Amino acid sequence: MHHLIEVDPVLSRVSVHLANFLEIPFDVYPQDAIMPLPLEEADVVIGDFPMAIIQ
Fold first, then answer.
1. Cα distance between residue 8 and residue 12, in whole Å
2. DSSP assignment of 1-55
3. CA dihedral 54, 45, 27, 49 (to 10 degrees)
4. Which residue in 6, 7, 32, 43 is a FRET match for 51, CA 20 to 30 A apart?
């Protein structure tokens, strides 16, 4: 089973549509990083860090 934890509700909806198109079952958890994760264990964790470039 695949799980997605996303802060942005728009990206959550895009991910749900992509998963439905690809026929991949996964759960989406809309939450912030400061909240406890709803998952106990994970084999692989992939994340991205928001970055701002100021010139």
1. 6
2. -EEEEES-HHHHHHHHHHHHHHT--EEEEE--TTSPPS-S--S------------
3. 0
4. 43
| 1-55 per-position pLDDT tens digit | 788 888 888 888 888 898 899 898 888 888 776 777 777 787 887 777 776 677 6
Position 28 scores a pLDDT of: 84
Smallest CA-to-CA distance from 28 within 43, 36, 38 is with 38
Phi, psi of 11 (to 5 degrees): -65, -30
Indicate the residue type of 49. Answer: F
Give the chain's end-to-end CA distance (angstroms, integer): 42
Relative to beta strand 26-30, strand 2-6 is parallel
